[in-house]
Design goal:
The protein is of the alpha+beta class. The protein is built from 8 helices and 14 strands. It is about 30% helix and about 25% strand. β5 and β6 form a beta hairpin.
Length: about 270
């Protein structure tokens, strides 16, 4: 089964969907939509859904189209455009996220950010059974278990962190914070070795984090909630809100960060 839905096979499919996001970004009049709803989100998910179900006909949990939860062993989890609101405000860094659950555990993840500040695109992928995470098709041999929590550590947080840099610097010490839009891409970059932890301080659904969670597993990392418990996807309620606050990365970094008073960023 894992040969059928391997990370290498999913990457071209997700990158094809990314062309829709790139085209939408380049519209002279700007992306279509308002608030946190963009027309291209539905178009991307409508493209991905039948192709994924053709590869593996199972349950499906998407952000934009109807859910199908029958209790099947496997479930595709798709976010066609993580942080749509920022995308519509012309902020680069949103991502397409495709994950697969097996018995409610993440076993595959592909996170693709096609529109980034530096002009490049970035795709991070992994599937159960693979020896390591892939970044743009190349293996990443270093693991999160090799990272130390120190002054060189980097914590990926939301773009809102730039509004309160002193508070976020203190919360992320002894490391530094890096602000970026998408929680899916934050977790992907951590899994790829760019940071020690990715943080979301707002409620997240399965489509936001399942693929990133798989990538963290492939890199030897963890994803925990605000109580320090592992994120789960067992019930429909879990899928709707997997966590009110989450921390993904090295075990040491996450166990430290979860104890910090993150409520101060909202005061």
């Amino acid at each position: 089964m894992y040969q059928l839905v391997s990370a290498k096979r999913q990457q071209p499919l997700v990158e094809d969907a990314g062309l829709l996001l790139i085209t939408e970004w380049q519209r002279p009049e700007g992306p279509r939509g308002s608030g946190d709803k963009a027309d291209v989100d539905v178009e991307i998910e409508s493209l991905l859904k039948p192709r994924l179900l053709q590869l593996l006909d199972c349950d499906f949990w998407g952000e934009e189209t109807d859910h199908r939860l029958t209790g099947a062993r496997y479930c595709w989890v798709v976010d066609p455009n993580d942080v749509t609101a920022d995308f519509l405000k012309s902020h680069k860094g949103s991502a397409i996220s495709v994950g697969l659950l097996e018995d409610a555990q993440p076993v595959l993840g592909v996170v693709y950010a096609p529109v980034l500040q530096d002009g490049d695109s970035d795709c991070v992928a992994w599937a159960k059974g693979a020896p390591c995470v892939l970044r743009n098709g190349s293996p990443i041999k270093a693991t999160l278990a090799q990272k130390e929590w120190n002054q060189d550590s980097r914590v990926m947080v939301s773009t809102a962190a730039t509004n309160k840099p002193e508070i976020n610097s203190k919360l992320c010490s002894p490391g530094c914070f890096v602000a970026m839009p998408s929680i899916a891409y934050r977790l992907a970059r951590v899994a790829a070795g760019d940071g020690d932890a990715g943080v979301s301080l707002v409620p997240v659904s399965a489509h936001d984090v399942a693929a990133g969670h798989a990538l963290l597993i492939g890199a030897g990392g963890v994803l925990i909630d605000r109580d320090g418990n592992s994120i789960t996807y067992v019930t429909e309620a879990d899928m709707q809100t997997v966590s009110r606050r989450c921390f993904g990365g090295t075990s040491e970094a996450c166990k430290t960060l979860v104890t910090r008073n993150w409520s101060t960023v909202f005061s």
